[in-house]
Amino acid sequence: MLKVLVASSKGGAGKSTIATNLAANFAVDGKNTVLVDADRQGSSLHWSERRSVHPNAVLGVPGLRRDWAKHVPDDAQRVVIDTAAGITAGEVGEWLEFADVLIVPVLPSAIDLEATMPFLDEVAELPRVKKGKAAVGLVANRLKPWTNASQLAVEEMQSLPFPLVAQLRDTQGYVLANALGKSIFDYHSEQVRSHQDDWAKLLRWLKKNG
Hints:
Strand order of the largest sheet: 3-2-4-1-5-6-7
Number of helices: 9
Order of helices and strands: EHEHEEHEHHEHEHHH
CATH topology: Rossmann fold
Largest sheet: 7 strands, parallel
CATH superfamily: P-loop containing nucleotide triphosphate hydrolases
Helix content: 40-55%
Number of strands: 7
CATH architecture: 3-Layer(aba) Sandwich
CATH class: Alpha Beta
Strand content: 15-25%
């Protein structure tokens, strides 16, 4: 069972978008997938409810309950955990007792990078991370590659203490799919496939570190 934690100390980084699309990718690939939502907004849980009427459903589990782990079926093959916005490194450490890997989305702005750096330094000191028992990967999210801001942000992210494992371009496709309980992995147009390709490096990294 691969257990993926998605967390960010900065609100609005696209954490739930990454969690839902990753869960959908696993489900479309035929894996029994669970999406644990520990954010009070419940965005991922609502998405899983909307998805329940479609093929390749994802089981949503409320993560705010103390006994949430008991609601993860024994036959689950993939578990994605969407944590609360503004989570602390200490709280991440508690979740990492259950998870195998941590994905941290980062937006391409100086403000977001500055806010994320102290968080990453603290994550690097977590016992499971220091011992190499939990891999950490960064995801540059909502990129506009044609802008200097995005290009400079990606360069700076590559100097951070963890590997940059994906560069996801900005598109309204994520918003439109989410409203239907779907993901970009549920569509097959040429334009959508180009955005699916943005995830290839991340998926390989998860396979390697899971």
